[in-house]
Backbone:
């Protein structure tokens, strides 16, 4: 209701997907996944949008996010969370962030961001992110 609160919710930050180099704007009042879907973008797999399926699992490589909902330990362990791993449907950006998809669907990254966007290959190195513990 206050103007201060309104200005906070209007803050936008750039979200960059490391695998493709593509980016989109996301406000502090929406989750990283909501911001992507709002713009009709793809890149982070979308599932339940409620923290239950784990397909939107990402690692925050640069920047910081705020947790806006519970993350199931079946999908993100306390150790992973301490390393910046989270569910894109349960966090909002606090600043510009760079993320990497690490969930079980990361290889299904079918990139269709923006009409006519040029797709470029991300870093070929996808080591050390395979958790293999999705249950
Ligand atoms: S979309 Fe299901 S946990 Fe995020």
Residues:
């Amino acid at each position: 209701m206050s103007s201060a609160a309104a200005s906070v919710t209007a803050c936008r930050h750039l979200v960059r997907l490391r695998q493709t180099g593509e980016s989109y704007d996301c406000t502090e009042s929406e989750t990283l996944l909501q911001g992507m879907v709002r713009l009709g973008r793809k890149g982070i797999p979308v599932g339940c949008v409620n923290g239950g399926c784990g397909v939107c699992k990402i690692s925050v490589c640069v920047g910081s996010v705020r947790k806006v909902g519970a993350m199931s330990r079946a999908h993100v362990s306390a150790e992973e969370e301490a390393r910046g791993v989270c569910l894109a449907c349960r966090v909002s950006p606090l600043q510009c962030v760079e993320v990497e998809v690490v969930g079980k669907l990361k290889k299904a990254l079918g990139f269709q961001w923006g009409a006519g966007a040029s797709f470029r290959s991300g870093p070929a190195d996808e080591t050390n992110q395979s958790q293999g513990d999705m249950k």
Remarks:
- Strands lie at 12-17, 23-27, 57-62, 65-67, 85-87, 91-93, 97-101.
